């Protein structure tokens, strides 16, 4: 998020002074790291939680369309950065890969058919295919079908134009552009305090982790894009808009396979349905990954719990985030999500063999010894005030801005990095309303579809998607 914002502002306002502070030794090593997330270009093509079934059995498509719209903005931004020579070859961070939704059983298969029928007429989903034919599915995803009961009812929807993204590599490409264009990058640096100065500017206290040297930076605008660590920095700013927010950390693990004989048989991202009581981020999926030019398979995630807000954080992160203003929302959200608590306890206690059994539901002939268990990054889900419930747990992102637009922070997780560009453009509109009119020509240069809903403009959508695919070599 921060690398995206810095890259955008540098092009909109070349004369502004920009500083980036990162506590680790290089960019993109926490939640954006290649192995700390699934690398899916989240566009709602295969993620079933973005298109839930309503009580009457119909499928709600609003969120799926919105997320796909957001992803198209990100694609346009990355395409612009590549075409302008601001970042390197697209294969460093993005690769084409089909996205599939796969289910079994009568109820799930009926739902998936209804989902296909609801999404297929939408311009952004017009290339979607659907089948229940075992032979066709064996061609689409041989590992998933190999060894499966031929009498089992299965169903899948597929979009060939999906993507796998190495968000760690993309983050480093963007910060590389920033550094070449005068942005002051500071790694190995902790932000310890954010306070309003007497003249209205923000005084940001930073400490060099190697030397313990402390300095104060004065700024007219501060963006807190610290992933799981954003909540604590937002609280330190003291802005009223940040009061009442809490965070619930969820960790995750994946099984990873690098065996070329296995990897070569699977070329897709295959998403299933979440278990009852499981958070949306725990939807099981069997993915092809491209990291550092090498293909691997990833299966998971297996949810876990830690009180850390960052993978390299402190076990005191959660208790130290408690405030009088967020205690009621935190307790209310906890009371209303006992099924999630039960689910997390069950996940934490799972044996390795239980994890292997989960893998075999999607890859029946899998042998556990070919897969290594890796720990992924932390995700801090947003807890916020609610007028009637006291507080709710929100599986999404939340942008908080001060009334004067001088501070902004991004909390939450899914769909995360895939929608970084549109979220940052929205934040700029909220924080810099007086500059937006003058920025329009440059914004249109970066995002040809800026301000347009592509799903409502089919011809423009096809033109833009075709052009970005060409530039990004998809």
Compact description:
Helix content is 34%, strand content 24%. The chain has helices at 2-12, 62-83, 106-119, 134-140, 142-145, 167-180, 230-237, 260-263, 317-320, 324-336, 338-348, 352-362, 420-431, 436-446, 458-471, and strands at 19-21, 94-96, 99-104, 129-131, 154-159, 163-165, 184-186, 189-196, 202-208, 214-219, 222-224, 246-257, 269-271, 285-291, 294-304, 372-375, 379-386, 390-394, 397-401, 407-412. Strand 8 (189-196) and strand 9 (202-208) form a beta hairpin.
Describe the structure.
- A hairpin with a 2-residue loop joins strand 14 (285-291) and strand 15.
- Strands 3, 4, 5, 12, 13, 14, 15, 16, 17 and 18 form a ten-stranded mixed beta sheet that branches. A three-stranded antiparallel beta sheet has the order 8-9-10.
- It has helices at 2-12, 62-83, 106-119, 134-140, 142-145, 167-180, 230-237, 260-263, 317-320, 324-336, 338-348, 352-362, 420-431, 436-446, 458-471; strands at 19-21, 94-96, 99-104, 129-131, 154-159, 163-165, 184-186, 189-196, 202-208, 214-219, 222-224, 246-257, 269-271, 285-291, 294-304, 372-375, 379-386, 390-394, 397-401, 407-412.
- The protein has 474 residues and is an alpha+beta fold.
- The protein has one domain: FAD/NAD(P)-binding domain (3-Layer(bba) Sandwich), CATH 3.50.50.
- Helices cover 34% and strands 24% of the residues.
């Amino acid at each position: 998020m921060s690398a995206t914002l810095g890259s955008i502002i540098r092009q909109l306002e070349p004369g502004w002074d920009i500083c980036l502070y990162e506590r680790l030794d290089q960019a993109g090593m926490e939640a954006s790291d290649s192995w700390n997330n699934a690398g899916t270009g989240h566009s709602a093509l295969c993620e079933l939680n973005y298109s839930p079934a309503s009580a009457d059995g119909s499928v709600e498509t609003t969120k799926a369309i919105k997320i796909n719209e957001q992803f198209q903005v990100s694609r346009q931004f990355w395409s612009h950065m590549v075409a302008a020579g601001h970042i390197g070859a697209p294969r460093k961070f993005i690769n084409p890969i089909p996205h599939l939704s796969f289910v079994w059983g009568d109820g799930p298969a009926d739902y998936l058919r209804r989902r296909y029928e609801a999404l297929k007429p939408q311009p952004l989903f017009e290339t979607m295919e659907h089948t229940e034919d075992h032979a066709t599915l064996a061609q689409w995803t041989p590992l998933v079908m190999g060894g499966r009961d031929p009498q089992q009812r299965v169903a899948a929807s597929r979009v060939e134009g999906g993507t796998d993204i190495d968000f760690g590599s993309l983050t480093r490409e963007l910060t590389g552009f920033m550094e070449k264009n005068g942005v002051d990058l500071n790694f190995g640096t902790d932000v310890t305090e954010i306070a309003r100065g007497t003249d209205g500017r923000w005084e940001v206290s930073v400490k060099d982790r190697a030397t313990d040297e402390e300095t104060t930076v004065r700024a007219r605008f501060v963006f807190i894009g610290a992933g799981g660590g954003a909540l604590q920095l937002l609280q330190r700013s003291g802005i009223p808009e940040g009061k009442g927010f809490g965070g619930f950390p969820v960790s995750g693990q994946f099984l990873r396979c690098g065996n070329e004989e296995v990897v070569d048989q699977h070329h897709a991202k295959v998403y299933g349905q979440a278990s009852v009581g499981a958070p949306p981020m725990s939807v099981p999926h069997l993915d092809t990954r491209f990291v550092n030019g090498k293909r691997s398979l990833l299966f998971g995630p297996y949810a876990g719990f830690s009180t850390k807000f960052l993978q390299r954080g402190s076990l005191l992160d959660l208790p130290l985030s408690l405030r009088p203003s967020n205690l009621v929302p935190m307790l209310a959200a906890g009371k209303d999500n006992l099924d999630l608590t039960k689910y997390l306890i069950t996940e934490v206690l799972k044996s390795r063999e239980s994890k292997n059994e989960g893998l075999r539901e999607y890859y029946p002939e899998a042998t556990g010894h070919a897969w290594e268990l890796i720990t992924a990054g932390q995700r801090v889900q947003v807890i916020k005030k609610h007028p009637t419930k006291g507080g709710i747990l929100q599986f999404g992102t939340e942008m908080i801005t001060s009334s004067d637009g001088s501070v902004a922070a991004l909390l939450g997780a899914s769909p995360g990095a895939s929608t970084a560009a549109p979220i940052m453009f929205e934040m700029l509109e909220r924080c810099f309303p007086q500059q937006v009119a003058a920025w329009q020509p440059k914004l249109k240069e970066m995002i040809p579809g800026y301000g347009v809903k592509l799903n409502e403009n089919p011809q423009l959508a096809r033109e833009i998607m075709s052009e970005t695919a060409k530039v990004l070599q998809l």
